Amino acid sequence: MNGHLLRAALRLVADGVPVLPLRAGKLPFRNCPACARNACGGRPNMKTPGPCSCRQPCHGWAAATTDPHVLSSPTWAPAWRQAAAVAYHPGGAGVTVVDLDDPGAIQWARATLPVTRTVTTTRGEHWIYRGTMPSANAVRPGVDIKSLMQYARWLGKGVGATAALPDAVRALGVKDPSPARRAPQSLSVPLRGHGGECPHRTPAYLERGITMGVQRITEARSAVHATVYRTFLAVLSTHGRCGCLTDTHVTRLFTAAQAKGESPRHCTDAWTNALTTLGL
Predict the structure, then answer these.
(1) CB-based contact 87:25 (threshold 8 Å)
(2) Which helix H or strand E contains 97, and what residues bound it?
(3) What 3-state class would DSSP assign to 91?
(4) CB–CB of 232/271 below 8 Å?
(5) Phi then psi for 271, rounded to 5 degrees?
(6) pLDDT tens digit string along 65-104?
(7) Chain centroid to CA 195: how far?
(8) How far does CA 223 lie from the centroid of its chain?
(9) Residues 6+ apart with CB under 8 A from 159
């Protein structure tokens, strides 16, 4: 048995982190015969981690448990003998992992996202934020989001303080609306917020947000339309309800998008769809 992995798992469980063993290749263990093809109903269908009634480490991320007796049980012993790593369920631990797979992705994160706890990985870094969201793969080149209904390999506690999950990360997980859901084309001008003073944001905070949005659009090398929409969504989710956005701010975002090849109509559609998504 890989006793050091089991001991690491038990230490995590003591802190309330749901864990599971991984086999070689960073893969979860396959379902046991009783649970093959989800014959038992399937733990993922329940959208919560925890051992299946078979008491085996089945069902991928959903096998994660915080029960030390389950981890040390005879039914899990064969898995620990073959285990190559320990994984955890970020959503169950109340966190979101931004998985940065290459130097380009790390550079983007350093220029775009708030500083937070960072864990070095084989190829890049995990940036860990406090809060949960739906997981999503390939949200931009070299970037995956691991939170709810997903597992991440445990590579240590990392360094730095854990920051709150920012809107910029939440927006990455939002898919661009399909053309069938686009707004009517008669709208031709940007819309501003609902009006009123902003009690929780400073002018410098707003300026930084707009600058980061422009930079994110400008640096997009692919999926420009999706990047534009996600950027608009991130800006509006922070500033769209308090009225601090002006036409000047919106024009800066639209100008950056049009410089990347977006038409004025596409910019207006993306802005209107972001407003609709947020209920503004």
Answers:
(1) no
(2) strand 95-100
(3) helix
(4) yes
(5) -65, -45
(6) 999 999 999 999 999 999 999 999 999 999 999 999 999 9
(7) 31
(8) 18
(9) 117, 118
- Kindly give the residue spans of alpha helices, DSSP state H, lying in 113-246: 167-172, 203-218, 224-239
Give residue 194's pLDDT.
47
Q: In this structure, what DSSP letter does residue 246 have?
A: -
- Please, which residues have CB within 8 angstroms of residue 229's CB and are 6 or more apart in sequence? 174, 176, 177, 270, 273, 274
Nearest to 280 by CA among 251, 237, 247, 244: 237
Q: What is the DSSP string of 33-82?
A: GGGGGGTT--GGGGTS-S--TT-SS-SGGGG-B--HHHHTSTTTHHHHHH
* pTM score over 0.90: no
How far is the first Cα of the chain from the last one, in angstroms, to the nearest whole number?
56
- Dihedral pair phi/psi, residue 71, rounded to 5°: -60, -40
Q: Convert the pLDDT of each residue in 245-260 to its tens digit.
A: 777 888 889 888 888 8
Q: How many CB atoms lie within 10 A of CB 167?
A: 16
Looking at residue 229, its amino acid is Y
Count CA within 13 A, CB hemisphere, residue 280: 23
Cα(60)–Cα(70) distance, integer angstroms: 16
> How many alpha carbons lie under 13 Å from residue 125 in its C-beta half-sphere?
19
119 and 125 Cβ atoms separated by less than 8 Å: yes
